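Running this now, will post back.
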Amino acid sequence: MGLFKRKREVDEPQGEAEVDQAELDEGDSAPAGPTRPQGPWDSADAPEEADGVQQLDLGGMRVPVPPETEVRVELSPERKVVAATLVRGASAMQISAFAAPRTEGIWGEVREEIATSLREGGGSAEQSDGPLGPELTATVPTQVPEQGRVLMPARFLGVDGPRWFLRALLTGPAASEPGADADLLAALRGVVVVRGTDPMAVRDPLPMQLPKAVADAAAAEQPAAPAVPTVPERGPEITEIR
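Update: finished.
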């Protein structure tokens, strides 16, 4: 089972994706999900950009790039942007954004799916309370050069926003050492999600693209990023770092 398997109604034809009905109802006044007083932000309520902190505009989300932090964009085999990874020292944080229903969050059920997939794959997962709410403390089976398959510590964080869901995966010291996550979590709180107004299938990745200047620079080969565990997901969402 993929982490983002779409649910079907009993009478839904095979192969059709679930689309939140509220997305199609103009003038729907349903609540827009839980508040996030300290970020990550929706584009409608984002504060002004902090002085001295650059942002990488990927379309579907704007990712802050703090000093001494490198951002690496991950592409699908079709060369579409699917995630951004912030690297600080030996720690990394992968961020992905997805469409979600207007009236409810999906992190609870996604969290259970991730935990089940990890356990079935030989890893482990336990729910804990983190700075952004419930999260998963996990070990993920990962292929490491010259070491083979090892269990690496990881943390999965989720944020439910208005019609979007943001997922973050922390690896390296930030996943296991107290205080080592501070800078990456601060960057996560500064992410701005740009959901747009078009109806989307629930759990579909938000459309993203590289800024032209970055796309031109990405044509050159870059060094490999620190090993980031991959967890079984739907379709092309397991990608490589370019």
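The chain has three helices and twelve strands. More later if anyone needs it.
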